[in-house]
Design a protein that fits this description.
Length: 258
């Protein structure tokens, strides 16, 4: 069985002191139950990565960045490279819808970043998802499938186990209107795993972990994690408090019967 992964995307939140307090609270909550059957990851802003790493210490919590540039170094003012990140964290979120919407990121750029992440030993969490117009027009499978294909251009079969997808319908992010568990499971099956199988074969398609993201909370995590194709969650607002994030982790474990 694919090991579930629960990743908290802090987005543009938390000062250094607040980051320490949040991680300490999360550690305390997680210490109250066995969560070894799942991967737990926190993704602070760049400014808090080093502080978060120190606060995590030897706790079984992974650390991820929210973005990166694809070049290892150079005259790219304001950017952060995979070479810099690999000294601090293990994961990196790529292609989040907010990056695509507000900062003009494209499938081609996400593809460059994936290659760079894999080359430097980082685990990419690749975000794909349709907007409301595409969803209402019945274009979800085509849109999501196209993003998957674009992201994986020239990525070879051997690299695939080191990659994670996150299906995040844009209309569900931060709106309080999550997709249904059944609906998300269907899209992951039809638009992500089916494309992976076409490109790399059934074995690889079943190895790759796929998260759901979009208004995930402790009271709906069971709905998502009880679905066979959903291997975890990429969590936004609910990860900004230690108790609510830990409750999601606990709910995921219970839903998967781990």
């Amino acid at each position: 069985m694919r090991k579930p992964i629960l990743a908290g995307n802090w987005k543009m939140h938390k000062t250094l002191d607040e980051a320490i307090a949040l991680i300490n609270a999360l550690r305390s909550e997680l210490d109250s139950f066995d969560h070894s059957a799942v991967d737990v990851v926190v993704c602070p802003p760049f400014t808090a990565l080093a502080t978060a790493r120190q606060a995590i210490g030897d706790a079984p919590i992974g650390l991820g960045a929210q973005n990166m540039f694809w070049e290892p170094q150079g005259a790219f003012t304001g950017e952060v490279s995979p070479l810099m990140l690999k000294e601090l964290c293990q994961y990196v979120i790529l292609g989040h819808s907010e990056r695509r919407q507000y900062f003009g990121e494209t499938d081609e750029g996400v593809n460059h970043k994936i290659h760079a992440a894999l080359e430097h030993g980082l685990i990419p969490i690749v975000c794909v998802g349709e907007n409301l117009d595409q969803n209402q027009a019945g274009e979800t499978a085509a849109s999501v499938g196209g993003q998957v294909r674009g992201a994986l251009k020239n990525v070879n079969r051997e690299q695939m186990p080191g990659l994670i997808f996150a299906y995040e319908p844009i209309w569900a992010i931060g709106t309080g209107m999550p997709a249904t568990g059944e609906g998300a499971n269907e899209i992951i099956s039809q638009a992500i795993r089916s494309v992976l199988e076409e490109l790399y074969g059934a074995r690889v398609a079943q190895q790759v972990r796929v998260q759901y993201g979009g208004s995930v909370k402790s009271d709906n995590i069971h709905e998502f994690m009880s679905q066979p194709e959903i291997d975890g969650a990429l969590i936004g607002g609910a990860c900004l408090k230690g108790d609510s994030f830990a409750a999601i982790v606990r709910g995921a474990i219970e839903a998967k019967g781990l």
